[in-house]
TrEMBL record:
One example GO MF annotation: lyase activity
Protein name: 3-hydroxyacyl-[acyl-carrier-protein] dehydratase FabA
Top-level lineage group: Bacteria
Species name: Bradyrhizobium betae
Coiled-coil positions: none
NCBIfam families: PRK05174.1 (NF003509)
Gene3D superfamilies in the record: Hotdog Thioesterase (3.10.129.10)
BP-aspect Gene Ontology terms: fatty acid biosynthetic process
Keywords, sorted A to Z: Lyase
Length: 176
């Protein structure tokens, strides 16, 4: 597998255009981590990313999504009671853990493999302006198995609406 750092020099933040480029594949090298394409790309930017930040000092990533009333999920999730599905908040954080693993130099494609605990304390509605995803890496294993375990939370306009503990993302090697 190619080393992601042979294709990409890590940056401390990423724009929407850079995230879209990652969704095309190859950003971290062939067969390595990539983000999903819209509409499943659940962030407009990565505001912060580090190897040693976060609550556990093992790395962190902060993503943001600008909310507009016409977002696709508002029209199809509980018609007449528009809200962003909590599963999309969890998926966004899984996306970020996989991106962090590639960004930090591990080869392979990211796959969500589990979550320990979930707590929903509120909702993202069309009235919100910005959703912020904050993810702190708890543990990273590199070797034959690449595994990232992280805790995260989703904030709507600064209010926590969703928390997840022990989100697990593994990187798989492409099979020829």
């Amino acid at each position: 597998m190619p080393n992601p750092h042979d294709f990409h020099t890590p940056q401390p933040s990423y724009s929407k255009d850079e995230l879209l480029k990652s969704s095309e594949g190859g950003y971290f090298g062939p067969g390595n981590a990539q983000l999903p394409a819209p509409p499943m790309l659940m962030m407009d930017r990565i505001a912060e990313i580090s190897l040693d930040g976060g609550e556990f000092r093992k790395g962190h990533i902060v993503g943001e999504l600008d909310i507009v009333p016409g977002h696709w999920f508002f029209d199809c999730h509980y018609r007449g009671d528009a809200m962003m599905p909590g599963s999309l908040g969890l998926d966004a954080m899984w996306q970020m853990v996989g991106y962090w693993l590639g960004w930090s130099g591990s080869p392979g494609k990211g796959r969500a493999i589990g979550v320990g605990e979930l707590e929903v304390t509120g909702f993202v509605t069309p009235e919100a302006r910005c959703v912020r995803y904050e993810v702190a890496m708890r543990m990273v294993r590199r070797g034959k198995l690449v595994l990232g375990i992280a805790d995260g939370r989703v904030l709507a306009d600064g209010v926590c609406v969703f928390m997840a503990k022990d989100m697990r993302v593994g990187l798989t090697k492409a099979v020829d």
